[in-house]
Design goal:
Elements: H1 2-20, E1 32-40, E2 43-50, E3 62-69, E4 74-79, E5 81-82, E6 89-91, E7 99-109, E8 113-121, H2 154-180
Antiparallel strand pairs: 1-2, 2-6, 3-4, 3-7, 5-6, 7-8
Length: 184
């Protein structure tokens, strides 16, 4: 009788640990709505919001941007770079040359998204290539957050999984020793 109760309790606790610590991964939906909002100094700017609720995508995004000019010249794919202080807004490290461009933005993580837009890059708006940075002391590192790959949902989940693994191992060891020491 104690063996059945032990098995039932272990199964129930395992289920609660696995399901209880699951994040609300799809609270915003499963699709990202992308909008190419314009070009700033030759750099395309893209806004990413969740399709279902319109909230900005304020977590790490794996996205690329490609562009094709009116004469068929293609550039990219260029990786998304987050715009500081503007949640859900991304640009690229590379600048588009002057001209009319068809810009395509795509994301693969945390969800799929795609947008296509036309943009005109004026010759005066293209930024010159950046100069080599002067030797200076590096800035102090800011604390990492979930949006930049720091501790987030995955950390508590990993801790819960490790705790579960240790608990099941300890209980199994206890049962084996108890059976060995039981008088026949």
């Amino acid at each position: 009788m104690p063996d059945r109760r032990f098995t039932a309790v272990t199964a129930a606790l395992t289920g609660l640990l696995l399901l209880g610590s699951a994040a609300t991964a799809h609270a915003h939906g499963d699709t990202i709505h992308l909008t190419v909002t314009g070009v700033s100094a030759g750099h395309p700017v893209t806004k990413a919001t969740w399709e279902d609720d319109g909230h900005p995508v304020n977590e790490k995004v794996a996205g690329t941007l490609t562009a094709t000019s009116a004469d068929g010249t293609s550039v990219g794919p260029w990786r998304f770079v987050p715009v500081a202080g503007e949640p859900g807004t991304f640009t690229t490290a590379e600048a588009l040359p002057a001209g009319r461009w068809t810009i395509t933005a795509q994301t693969a993580f945390p969800a799929l998204g795609r947008a296509e837009s036309q943009a005109e890059v004026a010759p005066a708006s293209v930024a010159p290539p950046p100069a080599a940075p002067a030797a200076a002391t590096p800035p102090a590192a800011a604390p990492r957050t979930e949006s930049d790959g720091g501790p987030g949902v995955g950390t508590p989940l990993a801790i819960g999984g490790a705790t579960l693994f240790v608990a099941i191992g300890g209980l199994a060891t206890f049962r084996v020793r108890r059976r060995r020491n039981r008088p026949s």
